[in-house]
Each structure stands twice: as structure tokens, then as C-alpha cells.
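Sequence, please.
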């Protein structure tokens, strides 16, 4: 599956790879982003762990930073806290979020 969409902070998403995009997401990443509108984080039924690997969550945090910076002209401290939490102690990346 080679579907992609490009993200532009001022304009949103465009289908396919577009020049000048700050990020390009695949279908799975976009689906996970869409599920963030729900009250609870998306979890796997089998074991209750968060859906998606840690690098995808880190990319989605980066996407939120781009969007918030463009539209709110500020960065909430909570995003920095989440990034530090995902990075783990002494800068080592956790293999999975609980």
C-alpha cells in the first residue's frame, strides 16, 4: 500500500507526496491521528497497549507541534513533557508506551 498524504501546517493535508510539505504520512499514521479525536487513546484489544509503534506517536507529536505553532503561535508545555516521556531516561527511546 503506497498511499500517502502531505501535511502543510497552514493548509492541512493534501493527497500524495507534495513538495514543500513539512511531513508525509502513510495511511496507518493518518488513521491513528484520526482516532485521537475520541475520548480514550486507541488501544489494542488483545493486550490493552497503545496502538502503533513509539516512532509513529513521536511523529504525531511533531505534527501537532507544527499545527499548534502555525495556528496558536505558541507551544504548550505538555507536548514537551510527552516528548520527554517518550524519550525515556537519559535520552533512550522506550520500545513501547504502556
Amino acid at each position: 500500500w503506497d498511499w500517502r498524504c502531505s501535511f502543510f501546517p497552514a493548509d492541512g493535508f493534501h493527497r500524495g507526496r507534495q513538495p514543500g510539505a513539512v511531513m508525509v504520512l502513510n495511511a496507518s499514521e493518518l488513521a491513528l491521528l484520526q482516532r485521537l479525536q475520541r475520548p480514550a487513546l486507541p488501544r489494542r484489544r488483545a493486550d490493552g497497549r497503545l496502538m502503533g509503534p513509539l516512532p509513529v506517536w513521536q511523529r504525531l507529536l511533531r505534527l501537532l507541534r507544527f499545527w499548534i505553532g502555525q495556528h496558536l503561535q505558541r507551544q504548550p508545555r505538555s507536548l514537551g513533557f510527552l516528548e520527554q516521556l517518550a524519550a525515556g531516561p537519559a535520552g533512550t527511546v522506550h520500545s513501547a508506551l504502556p
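The helical segments are 27-35, 54-72, 77-87.
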